[in-house]
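pinging the channel bc i need a second pair of eyes. not urgent but kinda urgent?? the chain im working w is below, pasted from the shared doc
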Amino acid sequence: MNVALVDTQGQAQRLSQWRGRILVVNYWATWCSPCREEMPGFSRLQDKFRDKGVQFVGISIDDAAKVIEFQNETPVSYPLLIGDMATMTDSAKLGNSRQALPFTVVFDRDGNLAASKLGRWKEEDLEPTLAELVSR
């Protein structure tokens, strides 16, 4: 994935910079309650698996100012990038045919789609997937 989006500081970030890591990409928005509910668990998993080659990235389909405000109120331990409706359209190519939120995809170290989920992904349900990918 060579997608480039800006982070909350306005700097361009390419998803390809995390090539070679297990990449968890979460499409979310500040107005999406299930999105907000799953993020603390994602932060805990990021902290737990960081040293094992796992990288979470949140892609918000929202206004940058709202994402920054959210991040100030609810710090997360992974980068938040700003997407748009074209980003949502791109998520359909990854299996989000309804283009709904939250939507999360997991790529293995080789960049292959390993898992995806439409709707809230509970920490205890995602953790075994990450543990299995880390063990490979």
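so The beta strands are 4-7, 12-14, 22-28, 54-60, 80-82, 103-107, 113-118. and The chain has a mean pLDDT of 94. — does that match what u expected or am i reading it wrong
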